């Protein structure tokens, strides 16, 4: 018995969950159901009037009053949301223009600084090249002087060598300015070498500054690119919002036209329906209500159903937190 009771309880639970799921699905499709019901009622009313069945047409139109009022109210609410988003788009676009201009000015300032630094580096590198040439020239002179020292020492140390090279040795041994020339040469070498070391340090500092500027320029360019990309996305959102405003206006006008049928004489209703129903097949550029990045050429009928579906699915892009932010 206990086993049977558990089985019955399980079946009842499954049934209740199934009904809950179906009820949820029905609620989720409420706007679509209202839209389809209203469109079917309008078409059936027109058919009834054509057959002379005014009573049936009046009954159908009377039954759809609440439905049409609900559809008008929903379209009006979303139209207000779209207008608010449009104002945000406009304000955010103006702010982005200012941000882009500021970032671009910072980029230009850093690039100008980089050009100035590049010119200074060019001058310093040219001077470093001249320093190197001067060092090489002094080193050659010092090498030649060292050879003179070696020759003079050999003349002084080897009498036979002296007499074999008497012309050169006599002059070399007799020269009294050798020490002065040697010291002057070494002083000049030390001065140039000291300047070269200082210039090398300056070049390293300038190169470090250049690397820093390269990083800053890359950063400002990324900033400008990101802002421009954001502006392009915002422009796309703005277009989608504007299309939504015009499409929701068409939706509201259509349902208002359907609602107004009851206030006219029965004899005029067929003409009004014949004017109203063909608008459902007119096509124009309209948004895809669950995708701010898409639009399509489609009929008003498809637009009504697409809008209803986005409301039921709660994915209408006008409700997205990031729209026009």
Provide structural commentary.
- The protein is mainly alpha-helical.
- The chain contains 9 helices and 2 strands.
- The chain has a two-stranded antiparallel ribbon with strand order 1-2.
- Strand 1 (283-288) and strand 2 (291-299) form a beta hairpin.
- Mean pLDDT is 80; it is low at 1-28.
Brief rundown of the structure:
The chain is mainly α and 325 residues long.
Overall geometry comes to: rod-shaped
Rg from Cα:
46 Å
Protein structure class: mainly alpha
Number of helices: 9
Mean pLDDT: 80
Biggest sheet statistics: 2 strands, antiparallel
What is the CA-CA span between the terminal residues? 63 Å
β-strand amount: under 5%
How do the strands line up in the largest sheet?
1-2
Number of strands: 2
User: What is the percent of helical residues?
Assistant: over 70%
Please provide the ordered H/E string of secondary-structure elements. Answer: HHHHHHHHEEH
Stretches where pLDDT is under 50 for at least 5 consecutive residues are 1-28
Core attributes:
9 helices, two-stranded antiparallel ribbon, mainly alpha, 325 residues
